[in-house]
Amino acid sequence: MRFVQLLSGGITQPITRVSEIVLLILLIASGAVSQEVRHQHASQDSHTNTARGLGESIGSPIARDPIFVYNNWSAYDELSDNIPLTEQLAMKELDEILRLRRFGVRFDYYMMDAFWFDPDGGYRTWRKPNWPDGPGAWIRKCRENGIMPGLWFSTNTLVKINAAPEWQNSLSEKKGSMSFSEGGFLPGFMDTMQYWYDHGIRMFKFDFVDFGAATPGTAKSQSPEEIRARNADAFREALKKFRRRNPDAELVAFNGFGGDVESTAGPFPFHNPVDLRWLEVFDSLYSGDPRPSDVPEMNFWRSMDVYSDHMVRRYEQSFLPLERIDSTGFMLGNTGTIYYRKTHAWKGALLLMMARGGWVNTVHGNLEFLSDEDARWFAKVQLLYLRLQSMGRTKTFGGIPGEVQPYGFGSLDADGEVYAVVNPAQSVGEIEMPRLSQEQAGVSGGRIIFRDAGFQPTLAGDKIQLGPGQLAVVGFGKYASAQYDLGIQNDVMIPRSITPVEAAFSPHGKNTIQATVNAPTSGDLRIVMQQRSAQDGTIMRSWKGGPPNGTNMGKVFTLSASQDGKPVPVAINYDKVIWSGLSWAVGEIRHNALQPGQPVTIQCSSTEEGPVTLEGKVYRVEY
Hints:
The chain is α/β, with parallel strands linked by helices. The chain is built from 13 helices and 28 strands. The strands form 5 sheets. Strands 7-6-5-4-3-2-1-9-8 form a 9-stranded parallel sheet. A 6-stranded mixed sheet has the order 10-11-12-17-14-18, covered by helices on one side. It has a 5-stranded antiparallel sheet with strand order 19-28-22-26-25, with no helix packed on it. The longest helix has 22 residues, at about 225-245.
């Protein structure tokens, strides 16, 4: 059926399986794909040309099964905060892993993230006084408990590390990174990888890569394209040799391996395309650190869910199989990297991470924030989804999250189907779940096994109606039974009704808009502001830094209201120091703060120095 659809020129569902990728490549090469599809994928020509010679190697997972990784980043944070990594912190989190295991939670790897190393040690020695005796006790305790340890590297960039003597003849002119294709850096770096493998490390995380690095002479004699190609080829071949020598090593790729992750409002295809040949050497490629999307939500954490969902969809559209995408979407902790989230809305974040179908499931942060009861729930979600992931039969459906359209992720096995669905809009929305199992198609009896609090989703056959900004999980077949119920996420409250209120916003001073509406006789008023560029009208983020010196976004975007000349309080959830920037503000005026039927004046402002365009909308919501 899918073959016929492709030949007729219409791709009706996302292409995620290896066979479908190869089929598309062959059809493009043979001229069988219509002009419409050719245009849609024109910017991906380099991907398809690269993939022609790769066949199954670009899609089949390298790992034998889905894995769970604990990463201690966001329990500490030395980039957007000043919480250091210490041996005491790392060992405490290892003890927490063992505690969670007693309740059935599975962890396969423990990744020691950034800045474990001595700046002058060339990645061979650990930082003192934080690790006075080195990593031996940590590695030993991990392996004694069946957990494989992993290490983070900034690859060929000098992020809190100095160039070792053998790297000097690979340095770029600005001495911030090293060429892979010249000098002694790459051979020395790969020797270091082998050194740590021989000392028990089994997972290697490569971050902050710079394929544009070149020695001064090469930078003058070769084009940027030639430099990037030579560097990528040299590093990829080195990793292939490392894998052949150490076939049980897990390699994961982070910043620098392709994709535009700063915003969900950016154009697609990616300006920085993903070279599919990296799938030959990496178990997974990540799709961006958690941050708010450009989709306004009253619940700030739901906007972050939408970001991770959106980026997974965009990487999938770049022909990466879902199994090979690490959404990095689950972080707990009280550090600036996750805006002091602690455990807010963590259940939805865990469900969505697993529903996306990736085989590298990474849990970041302070595991001590999870209670024993939380651990039991966590284990139940793992038990449900790890089997579904291992089947490799997860499909995306619906719209693009960043375009504010209802969407979802569906997984199936021989016994039933599970669908995670999200409505990111400021309205009640309906989405149809495409039944993935022919055996279950047309069979009713689905069950909502998880939802946010407030709005009660309505399930009718294959369709579900969701409240504004709501997540729900639906089971069919075996998974519709009560034993799979996952309850209600009480810290995400969805309005039971939402209605647009006519509001004519107009300029009212520099980067400020104002409107006057009548206070409703019942319900609260929700205010939504979106910031756009005054030059081209595109969505624009304000970047005001991270802790400790960044500016709280509640001071950058202000929502204010007054009635009868007196200020009225506006409740907001985005008042955080957000290192990754923000393009929107949402707030609510509670009904008990208003005089029903009387005019209320609303102002939305941005402190951007240059001119911006602000859009304002008002809704009546009832909880």
